Amino acid sequence: KPQQILGQNCILSPGLNCKSYKADTAGITLLIENPGAKDLTVTGVNFTNHAACALSATQSLTSGSSATFTIPCTGGLSSGSQFRDDVRVVYDETDGLTGLVNAGTVFLRVS
Predict the structure, then answer these.
(1) Can you give the pTM of this predicted structure?
(2) d(CA 49, CA 77)
């Protein structure tokens, strides 16, 4: 019952914000913001329990900017179903460390 009451959400660890999100039968779309001072390059987005939903990317995410990430799900998702999982955003810092991970959670209804 609690799952039916909860609204959709996307929560990332401090350092990145999930500004907007949706799920459809083709996959997951996340609008991710970099509120920090460092420029980043997102190199991937994946989910712990949905291996078929993954994105390899080279998307610049400069300080204060946002970018949309469309993560395809091989085999698709069922309309009307719920998508709940841990999300991992993999990124490199410009002039800094590489292969960093921001972990969070998503709970979406597939439209």
Answers:
(1) 0.93
(2) 13
